[in-house]
Amino acid sequence: MNQPPKADELIAHVAEEVRPLIGTPADTCIVGIETGGAWVAERLHSRINPALPLGRLNISFYRDDFSTLGVHPRVGPSSLPGEITNKTVILVDDVFYTGRTVRAALNEIFDYGRPAAVRLAVLVDRCAHELPFAADVIGQRLALGAGQNLKLTGPAPLAFVFQ
User: Fold this and answer.
1) Cα gap 125→135, rounded to integer Å
2) pTM above 0.85, yes or no
3) Cys-Cys crosslink for 81: which of 26, 53, 61, 96, Cβ 3.0 to 4.6 Å?
4) Are 122 and 105 contacting, i.e. CB atoms less than 8 angstroms apart?
5) Comparing C-alpha atoms, which of 55, 59, 58, 57 is closest to residue 30?
6) For 71-107, how does the pLDDT look when each residue is reduced to its tens digit (9 = 90+)?
7) Residue ranges in the chain whose pLDDT is less than 50
8) Residue 5 and residue 98: Cα distance in Å, rounded?
């Protein structure tokens, strides 16, 4: 693949696919995983306009792979829209790769309450999962070779770049 995916096109597609997952708007919240997932969630929230405010998760405290990534966690606050027990949470991320980010996000969500359901929406699925998770909504599947990475830059404009 010569060109990285176009973020705006994928957001439009994901927004259309997420709409049917929203049962009762008053019982559904959109939550983005910082940083890229939060940027995407903001755009989905404005397109879909659910009743509950946008949520953001900083999952740094819950990560299990910082020692292998060689980075130091920058733990920051998360913000969920009030009580999430018995609500549907649309969890949003930019790139779904190993599944470790999703695992960390689920751990944090359940610290806030017990949602009725959690649905995962991602712009790009790299198709290289290490954990048994699958996204409910995928903008594009993209298999990259070893050593290739895809990063969402932003917040304005949002653009994918290969690294």
Assistant:
1) 8
2) yes
3) 53
4) no
5) 55
6) 555 667 899 988 899 999 999 999 999 999 999 999 9
7) none
8) 19
